[in-house]
Specification:
single chain; alpha/beta; Rossmann fold; 6-stranded mixed sheet; 4-stranded antiparallel sheet; 7 helices; globular
Length: 237
C-alpha cells in the first residue's frame, strides 16, 4: 500500500461488462490513511478472462471488493453493464449483486447439510423462484462444470477440493451473471487440480459470455487467461 498518487491506467469504457474508472480507495490508519487502490482504471468486456496478479497486500482483494460493490471507493466510478454503481442505494446495489454479479470465493463456503444440486437450488428459494422448475437448470449447469449426476447428490464432505470448487463456480453462474469475480480459486488445490479449475473458468467465460476477473498469486496457471495485469502498491499496470 502507498499514500502517493499515480496516473490512471489507460481504459476504454465498455457498454457491457465491468469498468472501473479512476478508482481510489483508502483505509484509516491511525491519524493517516493508507491507499489500497491508487487511481485504478480497468475495463473487462463480455467473454474476456482477465487475471490480476501481484504480491500479498498489493490491493488485489480491495479491487475485487470494489468491483463486487461490497466497498464504496473514495473516488472514481464503478460501472456494471454501463450502470454506475455509486448512484445506487443499498437495496438497488444488493439487487444488482444478486442479478448481475457472480462471485467465486477463495473457500467454497458450501452449506454442509446440502447436496451439490441443493447448493444452487437454495439460491432460487432465496430469490422467491420455483425450486422445482430450477432443478433441471441446476443439474445441467453442474454437469457443464464436470460434476456427474451421482456426485450432484453428494454433500460437501463427500466431494474433493476440486469438485467443491466446481460447485462453487456453478453456484456463481446460476443467476446468469454478466460479471464473474473470482478470488484465488486455486489456493487450496494442487497444481493439476488448480490448472483444471482455471481451464474451466476460461471455458465458462467463453460459453456464458461473462466479463471475468480472477485475482491470483499463482503465475504458473495464467496460460489460459486473455490478459494478465500486475498490481503493486495499489496501482494497476
Amino acid at each position: 500500500m502507498t499514500t502517493s498518487a499515480s496516473p490512471a491506467s489507460p481504459v476504454t469504457t465498455v457498454r457491457t461488462g465491468l469498468a472501473l474508472e479512476s478508482v481510489t480507495l483508502t483505509y484509516p490508519d491511525g491519524e493517516a490513511r493508507l491507499t489500497a487502490l491508487d487511481n485504478v482504471s480497468l475495463a473487462v468486456a463480455p467473454g474476456e478472462f482477465t487475471a490480476i496478479a501481484g504480491p500479498s497486500g498489493s490491493g488485489k482483494s480491495s479491487l475485487l471488493a470494489v468491483a463486487a460493490t461490497l466497498l464504496r471507493p473514495d473516488s472514481g466510478r464503478v460501472l456494471i453493464d454501463g450502470q454506475e454503481v455509486g448512484a445506487l442505494g443499498e437495496k438497488a446495489r444488493a439487487a444488482l449483486r444478486r442479478e448481475r454479479l457472480g462471485i467465486v470465493f477463495q473457500q467454497s463456503n458450501l452449506l454442509a447439510s446440502l447436496t451439490a444440486v441443493e447448493q444452487l437450488l437454495v439460491l432460487e428459494s432465496v430469490r422467491g423462484g420455483s425450486v422445482r422448475a430450477a432443478r433441471a437448470r441446476a443439474e445441467a449447469l453442474l454437469a457443464s462444470v464436470g460434476l456427474d449426476p451421482a456426485k450432484q447428490r453428494r454433500r460437501p464432505h463427500q466431494l474433493s477440493g476440486g469438485e467443491r470448487q466446481r460447485v462453487n463456480i456453478a453456484r456463481a453462474l446460476f443467476g446468469s451473471p454478466s460479471v464473474l469475480l473470482v478470488d484465488e480459486p486455486t489456493s487450496a488445490l494442487d497444481h493439476e487440480r488448480g490448472a483444471q479449475i482455471v481451464e474451466l473458468l476460461a471455458a465458462v467465460t467463453r460459453e456464458h459470455r461473462t466479463a471475468t476477473v480472477m485475482v491470483t498469486h499463482d503465475r504458473d496457471l495464467l496460460g489460459r487467461v486473455d490478459r494478465v495485469l500486475e498490481m503493486h502498491d495499489g496501482r494497476l499496470r
